[in-house]
Amino acid sequence: MPPLTLLSINPEETLAFTKTPQSNTPSKILTLTNDSQVNVAFKVKTTAPKAYVVKPSYGTLRPRENQEVQIILQPQGQGADVSVSTHRFLVQAVPAPSSEEVPREQWSNFATEIIQSTKLNVQVDQREGDVSEAKTNENFRSTANLNVAENNVITAATTDTGAADAVRDNKKEFDDLYVRLTSFEQENKVLVIEKQKLLAENEKLKINSSSGGAGASAAGFSVVHLLLVAVIAAGVTFALNNLV
């Protein structure tokens, strides 16, 4: 088979997979680019088909078009009895009559002389440092959760303090209102007593008014005085009703 010139690939020689404690199925992206002026059909094959998932494994690229091929290493391809270093990938390319995909079964119709190809090796690295990194991330998440819990406690305490302040303010307003109400009640009692005294005095003046004009004049003055007291008493009663 002639060397691959229709396509450029990245990486060019080795597919390097990196295993981490967080993932036992590492993956690698193989980028194919059509460098020619014609449509190019491609196919990606491996010597260990059960050990890898290749998506897509075949297709057709228009001129200057590229395609990312995802290659996933499966757990069954990583056992102690498996030598990954012996695995190989084969990328094949051939000019296509159109931009339509060329089915796998039609590749057998192409002459071997026109199918270009290149091989890639496989390498698997183990990243031990990710264990400590994972622990660091876990500690960071634990610290973040602790900070959130502390903030919730502070918020709850602040809310309780605000509620207590509101209760104290309401109690103070109630106490002030009670003092004012008590004062009005006492003033009202005094006015009632004064009213009773004036009524009694007025009765006496009515009796004495029959004896002369001076008595009538005195009676007139007492009635005015009585009316003023009655108006004041009514005002106090109205204020008490509004407070209640």
From TrEMBL:
Residue intervals of the MSP domain: 6-125
Superkingdom in the source lineage: Eukaryota
Main location: membrane
Coiled coil start-end: 181-208
TM regions (residue ranges): 214-240
GO cellular component: endoplasmic reticulum membrane; plasma membrane
SUPFAM superfamilies, per the entry: PapD-like (SSF49354)
Stored Pfam families: Motile_Sperm
Keywords, ordered alphabetically: Coiled coil, Membrane, Transmembrane, Transmembrane helix
GO BP, sorted A to Z: endoplasmic reticulum membrane organization; endoplasmic reticulum-plasma membrane tethering
Localisation per UniProt entry: Membrane
Membrane topology per record: Single-pass type IV membrane protein
InterPro entries membership: Ig-like_fold, MSP_dom, PapD-like_sf, VAP
Family: Belongs to the VAMP-associated protein (VAP) (TC 9.B.17) family.
Protein name, as recorded: MSP domain-containing protein
Species of provenance: Noctiluca scintillans
Phylogenetic lineage: Eukaryota, Sar, Alveolata, Dinophyceae, Noctilucales
